[in-house]
Amino acid sequence: MAYILNIETSTKNCSVALASEGKVILSKEIAEIGYSHAEKLHVFLEELLKEAELGFKDINAIAVSQGPGSYTGLRIGVSSAKGLCYALDIPLIAVDTMQILANQVIVEEGIIIPMIDARRMEVFSAIFDKNYLKIRETKAEILEEDSFSINNGPIYVIGDCTAKAKTVLTHEKFVFLENHIFPSAKEMATLSYRLFKQNNFVDVAYFEPFYLKDFMLTQKS
Length: 221
Prior knowledge:
Layout (H helix, E strand, L loop, with lengths): L2 E6 L4 E8 L2 E9 L5 H16 L8 E5 L5 H18 L3 E4 L1 H6 L8 E9 L2 E8 L4 E9 L12 E5 L2 H5 L7 E3 L11 H10 L24
Parallel strand pairs: 1-4, 4-5, 6-9, 9-10
Antiparallel strand pairs: 1-2, 2-3, 6-7, 7-8
């Protein structure tokens, strides 16, 4: 039996899930206005294992959401995941954040566009078909009225920026799923187990989050 700890911290949602054979056993998450990942993440992990009556030595792999998303959130999640893998000598699995978000939705037709808020009218987005196959790679883009105009409807938009997307994407083909805001570790279980069975691991020493955009520090003059 393979136990995988799944960590998702790419947005304001600090989310962890303990899974076995691709099924979630226990999960904990909290989404706050301010980022609480540094304070909550390790507490959640320890609570999960205690409630499951397991120890870190029972874990077979750590899976982490690779991005894109918040620079701070990704850095905390990936650093924690790498630290655990080093200490436990177990493999690290990287899961596409956009795939995690898309997998929250079940549709019979059309496409799924997961979006994560970037800044102003910019978003990180990708496009998936109804079977969760990525048909357009993840990119950062400015939302405009004709964004995604080549796609026929329905187009299901999910993520933490539906409010601002609504003001621009006004065509009736867009369906905004406002109950699906943040990616969650609960949706990682199936994805991470599939990668685990394929021995699809990343190098713990060299893996870095998929920030997509360079992180820039500004200095006051």
